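Lab notebook: predicted structure, single chain.

Context: the supervisor wants predicted structures on file for every construct in the current expression panel, including those that have not yet been purified. This is the next one on the list. No modifications to the sequence; it matches the entry in the shared construct table.
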Amino acid sequence: MFVHRLLSHSGVYPDYTKEPSDLASGRSNVKNVTLLLSKWWGSGIVHAKVWISDDRDVYIGSANNDWKSLTQVKEVGIYLSGCSRMAREIKTYFNNLWRLASLDASTHTRSVSDQQWLINRTVPCWSHFLPTKARCRSPLPSYIDTPNVSPCYPSLSDPEMFRTDIETLPRNRSCPEPQPSYLSFAPPELLFGKHQSDEQGWIDTIKSVVEGGTVRINTMDWLGQSQYTNPKVFWSSFSSAVSEVVFSKNAKVKIIVAYWGHFIKATDGYLRSLLYSNVLCSSSSSVQNKCFGQVEIRYYMVPGFNKTGPTVINGTTTGNNYPAYTRVNHGKYAVSDVRAHIGTSNLVWDYFFVTSGVSFGTYNTKIVLKLQEIFDADWNSPFVVPVQEFGQDV
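Prediction complete. Output recorded below exactly as produced.
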């Protein structure tokens, strides 16, 4: 008998977990659990969007499992069929989340003065943000201590890579030789084997750009800080990576960020500060080392983004035509000239350090070209507007 396992956060108003609970009710082959990551990290949710079928087929992408995401939201994902090794690895991550749901977080968490992010916060007791002697042994299945120094989680110099022959559609578009692919996960306490953190997967994709090449990045939210912690965490990892390739590789970096009904107001300031890299680059005084890189950023506005929500509030018609939390460019991916990265995380600190996320990345030429094609269609669409530099009119 096949068993279906459903794992999710506590859901959203008004239905919360009613649908997965109803699916499991009275069915011995359907199991459903709710996992509250806030009990383990102080905040955070199950944000990974993953389907695993028969230990061989996998979907990873930005779409939530509801009708609104599949009809009213712009999504990007990848479906891998017959990739049993990768499916097993993702299943290990899923099993770790499943196990967390059954454990008592109060006995498996610690308060730590985080020296990397300079805040006091809650972490699992096996976290590398704790001093070595203060850690417990992980209760998770298939957990292998990653070869990092203590404390925190530095980048791995040789993360796990799959040498898998990925045949893309149509069938005659496979690459002549297997090209490396990888998986990355968040938060880092759920890493196993030699898989890299999701933050590293994104950053390494940005830095994989060739000299004078182009990096394309698409996300719903971009914020150079945490969104839900108190106090806030300053987070410069992605902006630093962008500036580094602009200067050191003379790269062009194109970024699309969603502008929608729940746009984070602080985003515009961070994006404008990132554009200041252009000023610094062009002001380089050394002829021998003149900087030719550039950052361009555009907002993507799905038509109707400002007409979402209840149609009637307190007896008054609102004029809204679409459901709440829809009409948004929700995809999360990056692609350089040689490497593609498709994930489930918004580019905000919380999604990499207190929230569950999964990404697939690859050097497969056909997938790289397809993701570039998807991005360029949006970049050149009538639904984008440029983000202006400081001192310019919006």
